[in-house]
Amino acid sequence: MKILYAIQTTGNGHLARAQSIIPRLKKVADLDIITSGPKNDFLLEEKPINHYNGLTFFYTDSGAVNWLKTIFLNNYPRFIKEVISCPIKKYDLIINDFEPVSAWSSLFKRVKCFELTNQYSMSLKNIPKPISYSRLVLFAIKYIIPSTLGYGYHYKKYADRIFFPIIRDKVRKLKITESNEIIIYLPTYSANKLIELIKQLPQDKKWTIFSPDTKSQQISGVNIEPLSEELFLKKFASCYGIVCAGGFATTSEAIFLGKPMLVVPVEAQIEQQFNAAALMKEGVTIIDRFSQKNLATISKWVDSPSIFKIDYKDESKEIVDTLINDYSNLN
User: Fold this and answer.
1) pTM value > 0.85
2) pLDDT exceeding 90 applies to what percent of the chain?
3) Residue range 169-303 in CATH 3.40.30.10
């Protein structure tokens, strides 16, 4: 059996969970990998046979996907050429983690494509949903990856064909302790703006901000560190709590580690809004901005944070077995 595993390179979440899925797929099939999206320095252990431009995701200044621009301003002639040239016919099955080139090529060339991504969960019934969100954007996400069958990831199994989050081996092996340090990873916020608010919070905690394009320094008693996976994971394992956006990978790892979260979803980022709705249902503190207007809520969280913990089992083998069995049942 020949399988093509197609992975989106926007962010690190898709690539990170691929590290657990790839070894399982190699045990049951002859495997090739392709990627599409922006350049990403995250290294897969298995080198992709090809990388495509795919569809360009346009972003607002606050870091949210601008779906109107994404839909109407993409380079569709280039995308169509990539869809046509993608060597889909060589494979029995395409497993797709939000990668549009192979998905559309599979549709036109009539090759089975199974979607395996957290975005798939958003359109299912019984999924916690935010009070207000764009139905147009949800429609676009649902149909950007045409597929024969779909499977999702979520914090809990709210519906059929949902798997628990894939937790990286590096995270599973962390030694969990507790210090008085709170770490912040909000890349759309400037460090100076974060520090302005931190100075108004209880001073019995140590604060560390992870920020892109910076150097190690200390300002007003707050540590600022450049992004480093090794240092971030070290502090993640020992922190008192984490202030983060609503991305699926980081929040899932916080749940697994049992670390209190203060979640600040990126404005107008629909996936993070859906994640926040599910987390709020479990008692996680959610705020719309890390700002003066939410100072009382932030202070309360610092004093008495709630913990949402699930010791997620490794379902990577179960995921691959399910996909292979479902493929066999379709033939």
Assistant:
1) yes
2) 80
3) no
